[in-house]
């Protein structure tokens, strides 16, 4: 960041005036770029969040893995029996879905509070607001990494190999930048309107049931064409499908890309309009 | 050249008390078609009201005034934390801000880990870290405590660590709130020596305090603030007697 970077040769300057027109957008983009340049800070803070949360606990962050494993086993046996599913297909599907959903609800839930929780840091020095969003993404990605063990064990138990692993790399990149956008957008909204966290909480609950997480998309016959209206569906499909050995059809890829673009446009509008006010609100 | 230029700076805090901050009210207004009144309905607290001044290298500015005069807000505005609602703030030079007692430090981390974290905050190069660590260790005189979590520190030790850290990065402009006066007498002596070193390198200091003797010895210029305005601006021996005289008359 230019104004406090001690290593820069040129003298840093800070020139602040009320923003008008396009300056909103340039400042917001500069904040995102500066924040990404300080990725080491964001990563360290996210990592410390996990490390300090589990300090003094015997299993430590493995508790994350254990609780996910218990949930997959419990839901898998109950719903597998209810839906008359074959476990060697249903459990791998369910483990991926639940782990990914845990990540999404973590990003959305923490997202509402990325700035309000960092009030002390925000009022102590000028650092890019994006750093706080990166911190939340890193923290949730670390939780996700711990939960991967559950998926690996399930795949191993049923002697399955995840197919198309290479296809996952660009998809993971898309998930990462979408997570950042969601954290920024919800963070800005949650700072200004303190009702946002409970609203997001109940929306997530609805999304959990209407998105194919516990049930497979193939189970639905009536209203199938409306499923693409749920933004979570294509984004889940492009990550889960290749792992399960099914390459999603083109419309799903397009929908996933389209929703990501919409998310970023909305985020940039919100963030550029409200960024300079965040310090006043936290 | 380091420098600070403030023109017609206005800062106002919106007050969203009670449910005024909630979506309910917003939506209620939108539905009843009164959304256009929103900007005027908003209650704002004017913290800074049209401030103008400039600082050149070597100037040591003291901010004085009663509680609520806007001293901390002005420091935060100079640090770029509060962006102006009106007016302009131009700051040339690396800024070190000692505004918050904890400086973003985490109580469960050791002093050494916090030093590393602080270096990340300031975007410092990795090879400068070892030097900063040595410098802070020497100045803060924490001994073995440097490897203990900082929540085990006394408040004086925390202040020494924070002060050492904020001044180790050699900011060209140092913004300081008065909290760091919590140190003992020996610390104050060394803090002063360290600050003198920073300021003598043609840097700028802006310090907010209630203690006139600090201003008299450390500052070359005093800004007397009152309810977000500049009441008086001049050398300490001109402003301080006026301020103290009025304070006495007031009590």
Automatic annotation (TrEMBL), chain B:
Molecular function in Gene Ontology: ABC-type transporter activity; ATP binding; ATP hydrolysis activity
Pfam families noted in UniProt: ABC_tran (PF00005)
CDD domains: ABC_KpsT_Wzt
Matching PROSITE patterns: ABC_TRANSPORTER_1, ABC_TRANSPORTER_2
Keyword field: ATP-binding, Nucleotide-binding, Transport
Domain of life the protein comes from: Bacteria
SUPFAM superfamilies registered for this protein in UniProt: P-loop containing nucleoside triphosphate hydrolases (SSF52540)
InterPro entries cross-referenced by the UniProt entry: AAA+_ATPase (IPR003593), ABC_transporter-like_ATP-bd (IPR003439), ABC_transporter-like_CS (IPR017871), ABC_transpr_TagH-like (IPR015860), Bact_Polysacc_Export_ATP-bd (IPR050683), P-loop_NTPase (IPR027417)
GO CC, alphabetical: membrane
Chain ranges of the ABC transporter domain: 33-249
Name assigned to this protein: ABC transporter ATP-binding protein
Record lineage: Bacteria, Pseudomonadati, Pseudomonadota, Alphaproteobacteria, Acetobacterales
């Amino acid at each position: 960041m230019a104004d406090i970077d001690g290593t820069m040769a040129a003298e840093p300057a800070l020139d602040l005036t009320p923003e008008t027109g396009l300056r909103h957008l340039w400042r917001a983009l500069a904040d995102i770029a500066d924040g990404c340049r300080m990725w080491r800070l964001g990563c360290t803070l996210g990592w410390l969040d996990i490390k300090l949360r589990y300090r003094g606990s015997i299993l430590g962050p493995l508790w994350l893995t254990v609780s996910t494993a218990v949930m997959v086993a419990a839901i898998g046996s109950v719903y597998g029996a209810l839906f008359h599913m074959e476990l060697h297909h249903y459990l791998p599907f369910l483990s991926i879905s639940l782990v990914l959903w845990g990540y999404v609800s973590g990003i959305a839930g923490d997202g509402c509070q990325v700035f309000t929780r960092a009030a002390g840091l925000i009022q102590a020095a000028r650092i890019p607001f994006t750093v706080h969003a990166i911190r939340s993404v890193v923290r949730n990605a670390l939780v996700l990494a711990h939960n991967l063990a559950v998926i690996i064990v399930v795949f191993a138990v049923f002697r399955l190999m995840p197919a198309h692993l290479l296809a996952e790399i660009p998809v993971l990149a898309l998930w990462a930048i979408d997570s950042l956008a969601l954290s920024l957008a919800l963070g800005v909204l949650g700072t200004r309107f303190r009702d946002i966290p409970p609203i997001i909480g109940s929306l997530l609950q609805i999304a959990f049931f209407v998105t194919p997480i516990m049930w497979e998309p193939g189970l639905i016959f009536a209203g199938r064409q409306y499923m693409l209206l749920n933004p979570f569906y294509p984004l889940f499909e492009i990550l889960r499908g290749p792992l399960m050995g099914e390459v999603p059809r083109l419309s799903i890829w397009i929908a996933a890309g389209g929703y990501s673009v919409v998310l970023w446009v909305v985020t940039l509008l919100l963030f550029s309009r409200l960024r300079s006010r965040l310090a006043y609100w936290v | 050249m380091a420098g600070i230029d403030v023109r017609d700076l206005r800062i106002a805090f919106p007050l969203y008390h009670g449910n005024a901050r909630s979506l309910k009210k917003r939506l209620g207004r939108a539905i009843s078609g009164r959304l256009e009144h929103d900007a005027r309905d908003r209650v704002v607290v004017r913290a800074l009201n049209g401030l103008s001044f400039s600082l050149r290298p070597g100037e040591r500015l003291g901010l004085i005034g009663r509680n609520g005069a806007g001293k901390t807000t002005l420091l935060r505005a100079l640090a770029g934390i509060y962006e102006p609602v009106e007016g302009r703030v131009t700051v040339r030079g690396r800024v070190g801000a000692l505004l918050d007692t904890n400086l973003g430090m985490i109580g469960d981390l050791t002093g050494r880990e916090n030093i590393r974290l602080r270096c990340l905050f300031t975007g410092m190069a990795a090879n400068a870290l070892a030097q900063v660590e040595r410098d802070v260790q020497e100045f803060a005189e924490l001994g073995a405590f440097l490897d203990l979590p900082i929540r085990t520190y006394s408040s004086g030790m925390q202040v020494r660590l924070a002060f050492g850290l904020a001044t180790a990065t050699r900011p060209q402009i140092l913004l300081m709130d008065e909290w760091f006066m919590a140190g003992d007498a020996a610390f104050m002596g060394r803090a002063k020596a360290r600050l003198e070193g920073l300021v003598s390198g043609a840097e700028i200091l802006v310090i907010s305090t209630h203690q006139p003797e600090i201003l008299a010895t450390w500052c070359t210029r005093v800004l007397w603030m009152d309810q977000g305005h500049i009441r008086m601006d001049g050398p300490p021996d001109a402003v301080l007697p006026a301020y103290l005289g009025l304070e006495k008359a007031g009590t």
